[in-house]
Amino acid sequence: MQRRFALTLLTAALLAGTAQAQQSSSSSSSSSSQWFSSTPTPGTFNWSGLYGGINGGFSPSIGNKIETQGVGANAANVLSGRRPGSITNDREGAVAGGQVGFNWQTGNIVYGAEADFDWADLNHTQNYYSALNDRAQFNQHQYTLGTVRARVGYAFDRWLPYVTGGWAYGRYSNGANFYSNAPGTPLAFTGNQSGFGSGWTAGGGVEYAIPTNTFSMFGNAVTLRAEYLYYDLGERTIGVNGATGGYASKFENKGQVARLGLNFKFGGPAVQTATVQQASYTPPPAQRAQAPRSYLVFFDFDRSDLTPEASNIVKTAADNAKSGNVTRIDVTGHADRSGSDQYNLRLSQRRAQTVQAELVRDGIPADQISVSAKGESEPLVPTADGVREPQNRRVEIVYR
């Protein structure tokens, strides 16, 4: 029942995140659907890059089957029920640790690899009493759990539902004690084995990127996640030996984990200050100084909104255009080379449309403004693919 409860919680979290992200995506795409109606419009957050963080959670109980066979004459004790042929041990407890990983993003698809390691306290002892009052005691304790997994998800702006799977490992112990029903119930058979086991894991989760203007750490993006994993570290058979032969008990070692995590996305956006770049020009003494014919408006990494400094530059361009009787203004959006070509083209389009809307608010008629997007095709500063260059994240305003 607890396992079904954990699955229900995870499913609800995934559906809630997806629904909210779809609502956000649909509202933000309305302004640019006329340009890119054939493909979904992603949000502004880029999931690519290295990340690391911490996690903690709970491992709900899950039935680990323990099967016992008697050796020699003790086989009859299993058949008669003095020792259990099969019994289930439910263990649960807390986990806590950390993770590190790397994401690549192509359009809305995010894929990557992650490794994590948790300290665990999953411990339970199961007792069995026969009709003759013979007691059998089984104990399982898991101390650590680690995984190395692949992840793939679909980004809805700052929401990322994903599935994951890969290799799992951990340190655990299995033990059994069989007591006699003689006076004092002396210990008659005992066995214990501990070590590392490995197997597989699979699960899924949902992650949310907190806007950097709300909360950030050293200029990096911060993400929150809820995640569920099922794992199986394989079976282990131990000898339960005594003075009169013994038994062999085979233990399953599987479990599930529901946990929350906090990640820091390294190499996040640094705060950039919008500036105007223009040629230095000294007019002749008798000539009246003229306003520049072009302006550059710069943007923060992976953003299309205007900073206060950028708004001032747009207002200056609008005021000078009105005073200079300018009849046409070209507004061209650009992006750096971090991200895919298609994503950067859409991002540069949104930047250009943001500047266009600000010029209109500052008194420039909309029919005098021509808007275009170049993506990463015309960098101001040539760079290699994937490089974040602040001067390439810009909109050019040119009087014609």
UniProtKB/TrEMBL annotation:
The molecular function terms of the Gene Ontology recorded here are: porin activity
Give the OmpA-like domain ranges.
Answer: 286-400
Q: Name one GO biological process term.
A: monoatomic ion transport
What is the recorded membrane topology of this protein?
Multi-pass membrane protein
Cleaved signal peptide residues: 1-21
Which compartments is it annotated to reside in? Cell outer membrane
Q: For this UniProt record, give its keywords in alphabetical order, as a comma-separated list.
A: Ion transport, Membrane, Porin, Signal, Transmembrane, Transmembrane beta strand, Transport
Which cellular components does GO assign to this protein?
cell outer membrane; pore complex
Pfam families, per this entry? Answer: OmpA (PF00691)
What family name appears in the similarity comment?
Answer: Belongs to the Omp25/RopB family.
Among PANTHER family, the record links this protein to: BLL7405 PROTEIN
Identification of the protein by name: Membrane protein
Which species?
Roseiterribacter gracilis
